[in-house]
Amino acid sequence: MTPTRLPRTLVVRLDSSGDVLLAGPAVRAVAAGSSYTALLCGPQSAPAGRMLPGVDDVLTYDAPWVGLEPPPVTRAATRQLMETLTAGRFDRAIVLVSYHQSPLPIALLLKLAGIGRTAADCEDYPGALLDLRHRRRPRRHEALAALDLARAAGFELPHGDDGRLRVLPPPRTTHLTGPGPYVVLHPGAAVPARAWTPGRAARAAAALSAAGHRVVVTGGRAERELTARVAGRHALDLGGATDLPQLAGVLAAARAVVAGNTGPAHLAAAVGTPVVSLFAPVVPAERWAPHGVPHVLLGDPHAACADTRARHCPVPGHPCLDGIGDAEVLAAVAALTDHPADRGEHTERGAAV
């Protein structure tokens, strides 16, 4: 590689859509210092990857060490990945992982594919698998940790980039939501421990509606039964009615979004919409709270499930989230929107950042 030629760089983030969105600032830094930037992610998070500014191509690999239902290890899938990576003629790779994950399985495959220089956060001894073994700062937010790694690898955000989450401009969705202001309630999550139970979410929709908010309930195709129950007679049900760019459009036009610690919360942050974050402490909020937008964290951070990474609530009644009262929800929305119906005693920002 000559000194004047910018590298062809691969960014790896093999986790969920939310994790890919959190990688956005690091991707933009890499893109600013590369002639070509590709993102390698899982098939489920590819739509989020295609929405990130700076990405020239999205490659997919269903890694057998990642995800809620990882696929079996096969020679065919590994061979296909190796052929794709080799054809990409990448000079460098940056592997983004969460604090509890190892970058070494994919680092081995990157080396075998001939990628010249690989960087990652890594606590384990990497041997010859990493050219830059970086150590993340304690309790660092995932978005900032990824950006720290990019900087350590020689990539800086371009001048004027504030480092917040960002996606390509979403489409207008007034034909889905109708005119007028609204609040989004997103009741679902891939990890059930990180969301309200359906009945609790339905009561929240009713309370928001009674307080004068127009409520729009969002969810994926597999969540139509959930969104219909939550919307009831109080809200507009858009369950299964949007793809990811359209969901971004719905969130972008909302005054605030009420959601658990899940991809749509990070998508809301990426389009600049304030978030009421229903945050179960199964993972630390300091690492996964909404990034770069006003937000309020609701939930019991000291619940018995704290730091367990549990997928299903181990405590009867799901008290860390279902114990959040309607008054707390209304106060949080009011703090972020200054909604006239909720002014008065519930206007303090509280845990907002």
Please, could you describe this protein's structure?
By secondary structure, the chain is α/β, with parallel strands linked by helices. The chain has 2 domains: 8-153, Rossmann fold (3-Layer(aba) Sandwich), CATH 3.40.50; 173-338, 3-Layer(aba) Sandwich (Rossmann fold), CATH 3.40.50. The chain has 14 helices and 12 strands. The strands form 2 sheets. It has a 6-stranded parallel beta sheet with strand order 3-2-1-4-5-6, with helices on both faces. It has a 6-stranded parallel beta sheet with strand order 9-8-7-10-11-12, sandwiched between helices. α5 (104-112) links the parallel β4 and β5 (117-121). The longest helix has 14 residues, at 75-88. It is globular and about 60 Å long. 50% of the residues are buried.
- Beta-strand percentage? 5-15%
Please report the total strand number as a whole number: 12
* Alpha-carbon distance between the two ends: 44 Å
Helices, by number, come to: 14
CATH level 4 superfamily of the largest domain: Glycogen Phosphorylase B
Q: CATH architecture of the largest domain, please?
A: 3-Layer(aba) Sandwich
- Summarize the helix and strand pattern as letters: EHHEHEHEHEEHHEHEHEHEHEHEHH
Q: Spans of 5+ residues with little confidence (pLDDT < 50)?
A: 340-353
How many structural domains in the coordinates? 2
Radius of gyration: 21 Å
Q: What's the average pLDDT? A: 92
The share of residues in helices is: 25-40%
Largest sheet descriptor? 6 strands, parallel
> Can you tell me the CATH class of the largest domain?
Alpha Beta
Structural class based on helices, strands and sheet pairing: alpha/beta
Q: What order do the strands of the largest sheet run in, or round the barrel if closed?
A: 3-2-1-4-5-6
Question: At the third CATH level, what is the topology name of the largest domain?
Answer: Rossmann fold
Keywords: Glycosyltransferase, Transferase
GO molecular function, one term: ADP-heptose-lipopolysaccharide heptosyltransferase activity
Organism: Streptomyces paradoxus
GO biological process, one term: lipopolysaccharide core region biosynthetic process
